[in-house]
Design goal:
about 180 residues, alpha/beta, Rossmann fold, four-stranded parallel beta sheet, 6 helices, globular, binds iron/sulfur cluster
Length: about 180
């Protein structure tokens, strides 16, 4: 039987730190994936990636970064520049990242994939789940719809972000492009 292995798509350290610590404490076999072509500018991308990698290294959790592909994101969201956060641009953005995560998971022996993209109170959790489910169905790997906000998850992330002094941005990813 195939060994359980979870691929967790992460957008940044503050959103993922509580989940990473929880999964690590539970002894779950998991890897963190960083695929975020939505983040602007590139300096911000590197800052978030470095911080996310650092918290994984502290716990010995595997961390994988896929190439930064801002042009793919720009092309996919063309015409949706004036959409509000939680609107159609976010549908496309979530699906793009989750499809890539599903593809990586399928190709690398993972048994399921999930994400922390919906953990923030600014996000629509159901919108993220719809994108993850669709991506998983297209690729042929189940999307784990655990709501990481629940059971104190959101509070744990906030507490750990403060305790560890993590860099905590004040916008999702594409804001500098779209006011
Ligand atoms: S607000 Fe965030 S989720 Fe929505 S399109 Fe921009 S980067 Fe993607």
């Amino acid at each position: 039987m195939q060994k359980e292995a979870l691929l967790l798509l992460s957008c940044c350290a503050p959103c993922s730190v509580g989940v990473i610590q929880q999964l690590h404490a539970e002894g779950v076999n998991f890897t963190v994936l960083f695929y975020n072509p939505n983040i602007r500018p590139i300096e911000e991308y590197h800052r978030r990636r470095q911080e996310n990698e650092r918290i994984c290294q502290e716990l010995g959790v595997p961390f994988v970064e896929l190439p930064y592909q801002p042009e793919i994101w720009t092309e996919a969201t063309r015409g949706l520049e004036n959409e509000p956060e939680r609107g159609k641009r976010c549908d496309v953005c979530f699906f793009l990242r989750l499809k890539q995560a599903a593809t990586y998971a399928k190709a690398n022996g993972f048994t399921r994939f999930s994400s922390v993209l919906g953990i923030s109170r600014y996000k629509d959790f159901d919108q993220v789940c719809r994108a993850g489910k669709k991506a998983g169905e297209e690729v042929g790997i189940p999307y784990d719809m655990t709501n990481w906000r629940k059971n104190g998850g959101a509070e744990r992330s906030i507490r750990l972000t403060k305790e560890k002094g993590l860099y905590n941005q004040n916008y999702c990813g594409c804001k500098p492009r779209f006011k």
